[in-house]
Amino acid sequence: MYETGEAVARAFFDRWNEGDADGIAALFVEDADFVNVVGLWWHDRRAIRKAHDYGFRHIFENARVEITELSVRELTPDIHIVHTVSILDGQTGVGGTEAVQRTAVISMVTHRRSSAFQIVCCHNTDRVVGADTHVVDTRGFRVCTQLVLFVTLEL
């Protein structure tokens, strides 16, 4: 069905734009892992399907996602890592208003099983332009954009 890691990754985005939680789940191996943008970790196909179904009904019912960059690293002929950058528009925001556009970096490890590639694990991260890191302090969770990081390496 999907002859490359790229093909199964593109199918993920197609199913996402169709709001097809069953179709998304079918792209994953049974014991797949999925880490979403806020760090929730789903440990199997059933949980991945359930989470996407909820999202399509309550958060992303009017949303569309578009791949703007895609790269594939072939570890072996049967294992491909796919990295994508995508733009999300139309998410339902606080109070039902439309949220602003988001950019995500999504990484997938794909594996050919039998004759088709499937997704073994997927990690979704928001790209925050200009941010150095996230900080949690007495004011809560926030993006830090003026932090200078110094790293000391001992060799």
Automatic annotation (TrEMBL):
Pfam families: SnoaL_2
Source organism, top-level taxon: Bacteria
Coiled-coil segments on the chain, per record: none
Residue ranges occupied by any SnoaL-like domain in the UniProt entry: 9-73
InterPro entries: NTF2-like_dom_sf, SnoaL-like, Steroid_delta5-4_isomerase
SUPFAM superfamilies: NTF2-like
The name this protein goes by in its record: SgcJ/EcaC family oxidoreductase
